[in-house]
Design a protein that fits this description.
Strand content: under 5%
GO molecular function, one term: sigma factor activity
Domain RNA polymerase sigma-70 region: 17-82
Distance between the termini: 72 Å
Keywords: DNA-binding, Sigma factor, Transcription, Transcription regulation
Order of helices and strands: HHHHHHHH
Organism: Nocardioides aromaticivorans
InterPro entries: RNA_pol_sigma-70-like, RNA_pol_sigma-70_dom, RNA_pol_sigma-E_actinobac, RNA_pol_sigma70_r2, RNA_pol_sigma70_r4_t2, RNA_pol_sigma_r2, RNA_pol_sigma_r3/r4-like, WH-like_DNA-bd_sf
CATH architecture of the largest domain: Orthogonal Bundle
Radius of gyration: 18 Å
Number of domains: 2
Number of helices: 8
Helix content: over 70%
Number of strands: 0
CATH class of the largest domain: Mainly Alpha
């Protein structure tokens, strides 16, 4: 006879095995440091495990884990030792996309330069593919704030990437 706790653990383990790479990439985009991203994911998954039966029954696992990921990132950034600058700007070993190295570096620099609130909105809207309303609910802000943060973030990214593109062209000539 299989205990219900074993089924719970099996279901949780299957979810983590399937979603962990995406959770790591999202956390890495949020915080910009692969080591901190691992901490954020681990914290979010620990929160998820505690309430696993409830969120699984409600079929809201992805929504819960997104919110836990963002909240874990916010908690991590508030810790005094996290206010220090990161020792390295290492990119994760796993590929986030398939752009050229120069484009990847430029995109990462531009994303990292965004204020944390704008970065969170961009990650949830454009990485996770959430709607304005879903992003607002996950972050606990209004839909209007999501729209204005997205607009400002995309304008900043466009400007930064245009500047980077101009710099790359000058270096090639």
């Amino acid at each position: 006879m299989v205990r219900s706790g074993a089924r719970r653990d099996d279901a949780f383990a299957a979810y983590v095995a399937e979603r962990r790479p995406q959770l790591f990439r999202a956390a890495w985009l949020l915080c910009g440091d692969p080591h901190r991203a691992e901490d954020v994911v681990q914290s979010a998954l620990a929160r998820l495990y505690v309430v696993w039966p409830r969120v699984e029954r409600a079929r809201s696992v992805d929504a819960y884990v997104r919110r836990a990921l963002v909240n874990s990132h916010i908690d991590e950034s508030r810790r005094p030792w996290r206010r220090e600058a990161s020792a390295g700007d290492d990119l994760p070993e796993r590929s986030v996309g398939a752009p050229a190295v120069e484009e990847h570096d430029a995109l990462w620099s531009a994303l990292r330069a965004l204020p944390p609130g704008q970065r969170r909105v961009v990650v949830l809207r454009h990485w996770w593919g959430l709607s304005v309303e879903e992003t607002a609910a996950d972050l606990g802000i209004s839909a209007g704030t999501v729209k204005s943060q997205t607009s400002a973030a995309l304008a900043a990214l466009r400007s930064a990437l245009a500047d980077q593109s101009d710099s790359l062209e000058e270096n090639r000539t």
